[in-house]
């Protein structure tokens, strides 16, 4: 297969159990100049109160849902870090959504070979835990970023061909 040729391959969904979401997000956050990041492991049963929540519907070669959650204070802090950039002109919700979008791109480009998949639109939208699938997450992680809690959850449709 050559680069640029669309193709598919079968991937065992159990592979997502070993996907380290927090270290992948750390790579994105380091680009944005974030200093202190602590990896806290998997989320406790039941969702914590983290009102700044965005969900992305993964479509294309991989289907599933990605949820990134934190506090409004984290989004405000993130905006303050982007103040002297183009992003600094936007509200904190938009900057948080940009972080989620960038993380989503890192996720698919780090886990899949870019020439073997196609990706649908990445559009983070507000969500709440009641919107989550009933199935268990395929991968999940919690972090503390400069003192702010953050949680990532990923559901993958197990019948997918990648």
Q: How would you sum up this structure, described in words?
A:
The chain is an alpha+beta fold. Helices cover 25% and strands 23% of the residues. It contains 3 helices and 6 strands. The protein has helices at residues 21-31, 72-81, 92-111, and strands at 37-41, 52-58, 64-70, 125-126, 139-145, 148-156. A 6-stranded antiparallel β-sheet has the order 1-5-6-3-2-4. The radius of gyration is 16 Å and the shape is globular. The two termini are 15 Å apart. The model is unreliable at 1-13 (pLDDT under 50).
- The rough form would be described as globular
Strand arrangement in the largest pleated sheet: 1-5-6-3-2-4
Helix content: 25-40%
Q: Give the overall pLDDT as a whole number.
A: 82
- How many E strands? 6
Radius of gyration: 16 Å
How does the major sheet shape up?
6 strands, antiparallel
H/E order of the elements? HEEEHHEEE
SS content category: alpha+beta
SSE diagram, text form:
Blueprint: H1 21-31, E1 37-41, E2 52-58, E3 64-70, H2 72-81, H3 92-111, E4 125-126, E5 139-145, E6 148-156
Antiparallel strand pairs: 1-5, 2-3, 2-4, 3-6, 5-6
Short synopsis of the structure:
This protein has helices at residues 21-31, 72-81, 92-111; strands at 37-41, 52-58, 64-70, 125-126, 139-145, 148-156.
Question: Which key phrases capture this entry?
Answer:
162 residues; alpha+beta; 6-stranded antiparallel beta sheet; 3 helices; disordered N terminus
